[in-house]
Amino acid sequence: MADPQFYRRPLPIGLVPFASPEGRALFREALEAGQLEGWFTLSEQFQTQSDPSFCGLGTLVVALNSLGIDPGRVWKGPWRWYSEELLDCCLPLDAVRARGVTLGQFACLARCNGATATVRRADSATVDELRRDLEEASAAAEGIVVAASYSRRALGQTGDGHFSPVAGLHAGRDLALVLDVARFKYPPHWTPVTALFDAMRSIDPVTGHARGWVVLRRRTSPGATLLSRLGAAGAPSLERARDEIVGAARALSSRPSGSITELFTVLAESVGASAEELMAELPSALEGLDASTRAALEELLAALESSPAHAAASAAMPALARVTLGLVALLTLALPEQTLSSTARDARAGWLDALPPALSAEVAALKDQLASLVEAARSDVEPAPCAAGRDILPSDERR
User: Fold this and answer.
1) Does 210 share its domain with 120?
2) Is 310 a catalytic residue?
3) How many domains, in total, are found in the chain?
4) Residues 54, 193: one domain?
5) pLDDT score of 153
6) pLDDT tens-place string over residues 272-329
7) How far is CA 42 from CA 87, 117, 133, 153, in A?
8) Do 326 and 212 share a structural domain?
9) Which of 143, 330, 347, 376 is the most buried (most CB within 10 A)?
């Protein structure tokens, strides 16, 4: 039997289609009240998620582009632009396609792509806090995006976990304008704020945590690291090393290493195999970068090899290969504070003060990324796919 096919869904009673007469009237009233200022930049970038499991990535692409964040990586041709295939700094796209993303992973992806992400889980927040965040974002012409993570089932829709940006508020009717990125399934719609909050309170049966929302803003410091750009340009060993590095950081969070030499040893064991592969990939990967990024990366590597952290790692482990030594030094500088013993923190403090500006910025961006990865790994287990792709099961959700 052939798989069933679908073309869109009618919205449940209580949700108002954006393009309906009532939806248009609500839009005009909210616009007149100044509660749709954020809609303009979001509507410019609004798009349909490219895969049934990509609701989180689709939402984040809309948000990052509306915030005007430069990805620093080429999309197509000479153009730098966010698309879902660039959002791979926290977990591989194949994993997202198979399992979707959790709220923690969504925040991690935002943080390593130039945004700040304030996560609010509905079981530790109130509906009034949601209203305040929506009011702030709706009144701001640019610079703030609220991304909602909620249960479709709780809103009477088919499926369950889903992400979408919220583009505005009608305070008089207490309605939020949800720009559903699964446009093949449901159109943008006005949703009661209380109903949306209740849908966020639903416990994700896979993670065991409530859903919620994320307040996104453009960050002034660098987002995507030069290492992530190098990985995208043709050094997949950097991506493969990610899980080992995060695993080591999580282990160190529970039991920090005693001495700085012990820390070097743990990190060298974590990245050793991937570093050998990186050595072979590096020449072609560098060729895949544009001239300015390649020059910046070469400057970064030179500064790293001249740093006190590199000198200390080299003295402690002189047999390490050059690439392994560089990764160990960089990770030592960028590990979150909670992964280090007091002895290692004291040693690192002096090294951080001595860094040149370019390397200091790279270390800060990588530190944010690692902290987000460790937090996401700690707070979330395997996520479930977006509900947009679940219409084939069970049968009662097809109606």
Assistant:
1) yes
2) no
3) 2
4) yes
5) 96
6) 777 777 767 777 766 766 777 778 778 888 999 999 999 999 999 988 888 788 888 9
7) 19, 17, 16, 25
8) no
9) 330
